[in-house]
Amino acid sequence: MNSPKLEKARHLMGLKKYAEALALYATMVKQFPQGGGEYGRAAADSGDFDLAFQIWEQFLRHQPGNAGLMARLAEEYQTIGLHARARELLAKAVEIEPRNLELQLKRAALLARTSSIDSARAAIAQCLELDARNPQALFLQARMQRRAGELAQAETQLRDLLASPHSDPSVHYSIHAELAQILDSTRRFDEAMAVLAQGKALARQAFHFAAERKAFYERHSAGVAQAVALPKSSLEKFAASFPTRARNAMPPVAFLSGCARSGTTLLERILDAHPKVAAFDESPAFKAIQQQVESSTVQGLNLLRHRYVKNLTAGSNSSANDRILLDKSPSRTLWLPGMLRLFPDLRCLIALRDPKDIMVSLYFQDHVGTNFLSLEELAHHYRQVMEVWLAVREWTSLTWMETRYEDVVADLPKEGARVTKFLGLEWHENQTRFFESNLEKPVMSTNYHDVSQPVYKRAVGRWQVYEKHLAPVFPVLEPFCQTFGYA
Question: Looking at the structure, do residues 261 and 323 belong to the same domain, yes or no?
Answer without folding.
Answer: yes
